[in-house]
Amino acid sequence: MNNIKAQKLLNKIQRDLMRNGIITNTLISDLKDLRPLVVEEGQPLLAKVIRLTFEHVEAYDSFNIAIPDDEAVEEGEEAPVQEETTGQESLDYLLSLMADPSNRVNEIELREYVNAFNEYAEEN
How far is residue 59 from each of residues 4, 93, 107, 114, measured CA to CA in Å? Predict the structure, then answer.
């Protein structure tokens, strides 16, 4: 993420999350403000992850997606998903991935979050 305004907004979202936990209205609003900045930067994967994140929080009033497993992931493989960790920790981890979406491992994990959002929506 190269846009300084986007970086500052992402940092604000992370600080708010760590200080106050998941405050859905603020989180949704900030993510909706962040998305156009990312679109302007030409980051379609990141824009999709941000949209799916705020849609998920709007729909379920929480964050119910687990952190992808931290085992080594090679290109072409899907990262296994841990079932135990959800909520604030997983959201914080997702936000940290957003800070550097050009990192290959981060990109793979962002794609895993997209898959997890879609699977969760189908199941619920």
Answer: 30, 20, 25, 16
| pLDDT per residue as tens digits for the range 82-94 | 445 558 999 999 9
Task: Record the tokens describing residue 90, joined without a space.
Answer: 């997983």
Residue ranges in 41-87 assigned as alpha helix (H): 44-60
Give the number of C-alpha atoms closer than 13 A to the C-alpha of residue 32, restricted to the C-beta side: 11
pTM of the model as a whole: 0.85
DSSP assignment string, 68-101 = BP-S---TTPPPPB-SS--THHHHHHHHHHHT-T
Numbers of helices and strands, H then E, in the chain: 5, 0
Phi, psi values for residue 41, rounded to 5°? -75, -10
